[in-house]
Design a protein that fits this description.
Layout lengths: L7 H28 L4 H31 L5
Helix pairs in contact: 1-2
């Protein structure tokens, strides 16, 4: 592997786990906000990291695919 210490599968696992963490955080924020009205700072402490994890997860998955494409050999 020219680029890699990290395989496609490992990158996908990490990306999916990050995205799941983001989705779980957003779900917690939505249900928590509906159950007990949160103030804006309390809500932001949950939503901002959750959206960041979701974005990092998507970027990690796409970047893993990109690096695996770069490793393909031409026939």
């Amino acid at each position: 592997m020219g680029f890699g210490r990290i395989s496609l599968e490992a990158g996908l696992r990490v990306g999916v786990l990050l995205a799941i963490a983001g989705i779980l955080g957003l779900t917690y924020a939505i249900y928590g906000w509906n159950a007990v009205p949160m103030s804006f700072p309390q809500l932001a402490r949950v939503v901002v990291p959750s959206v960041t994890f979701l974005a990092l997860g998507a970027q990690t998955v796409l970047y893993s695919f990109f690096l695996s494409i770069l490793e393909l050999r031409r026939p």
